[in-house]
TrEMBL record:
This protein's record includes keyword Signal: yes
Signal peptide: 1-27
Gene3D superfamilies per UniProt: Glycoside hydrolase/deacetylase (3.20.20.370)
Name of the protein in its database record: Polysaccharide deacetylase family protein
UniProtKB keywords: Hydrolase, Metal-binding, Signal
Organism, scientific name: Microtetraspora malaysiensis
Enzyme Commission number(s) from the entry: 3.-.-.-
Domain (NodB homology): residue spans on this chain: 49-227
Length: 253
């Protein structure tokens, strides 16, 4: 009879001992899970050597060639497209988006916005926005003004569309005809490349596309991750209409 009474007590003790022994392990699993979640929430570029490659004025004759090079090196980029060219080349535009690249608004017809009245600025931005959305199914959240030229009117309108401005931080200057040499552009890109830079280039320049394999090869060996602008800015509080990264706007075409 005494043995019969002791059996439930022994079982309870065994369960208690088991719970006591497994509690630290459970706590360790929970701690590991929390740490994993925290790492997952941490912006990618806080723990990686990032650079954002950007290309203006497309879609263009060399865009598909550019996409092939980017794919080969597992590089993501941001394309600032002109609306009337998007309208003429919707398939190429879709290919850009399908490749996992980001598409930004570079106006409808590449007019210098500071030369225009408010209504005309609004039209340039809206028509560019509408063309890109129609082609990709996505509404751009990034804007780059032709020539990097902005004023208060431009800022206000860009803000109304919920976009931020991305003038770029460095440029290969491939918009200068005398610089359109593959060797020069390769060296120039490598000289200006640095962590968290937004590099401005043009997909309309053949020599830029031809220089890119060597540039990507070298920067990959240096440990760079090629990310979209939005990925680079991840975790930052962005105000529509303002320019990012936070610095003086640079000129460009």
């Amino acid at each position: 009879m005494a043995l019969h009474r002791l059996a439930p007590l022994a079982a309870i003790c065994a369960l208690t001992l088991s719970a006591t022994l497994t509690a630290p392990a459970q706590a360790q699993v929970q701690t590991h899970s929390t740490a994993t979640q925290q790492r997952a929430a941490e912006p990618y570029c806080e723990t990686h050597k990032c650079i954002a490659l950007t290309f203006d004025d497309g879609p263009a004759e060399y865009t598909n060639d550019l996409l092939k090079v980017l794919k080969k090196y597992k590089a993501k980029a941001t394309f600032f497209l002109i609306g009337n060219r998007v309208q003429k080349h919707p398939k190429v535009t879709k290919n850009i988006a399908k490749g996992g690249h980001e598409v930004g608004n570079h106006t409808w017809s590449h007019k210098y916005l500071t030369d225009l009245e408010y209504k005309a600025i609004y039209s340039e931005v809206k028509k560019g926005q509408d063309a890109i959305k129609k082609a990709t199914g996505k509404t751009p959240v990034l804007f780059r003004a032709p020539g990097g030229l902005i004023n208060d009117g431009v800022r206000t309108i860009i803000g109304k569309f919920g976009m931020v401005q991305i003038p770029g931080t460095v440029a290969t200057q491939d918009y200068i005809k005398d610089y359109r040499d593959v060797e020069f552009l390769t060296g120039r890109a490598l000289d200006i490349a640095d962590q968290d830079e937004v590099m401005l280039m043009h997909e309309t320049v053949k020599e830029t596309i031809e220089s890119l394999p060597a540039v990507l090869e070298d920067l990959t060996a240096q440990g760079y991750s090629f990310v979209t602008v939005s990925k680079l800015l991840e975790g930052q509080k962005l105000t529509p209409g303002e320019s990012y990264p936070d610095q003086l706007p640079m000129s460009g075409d």
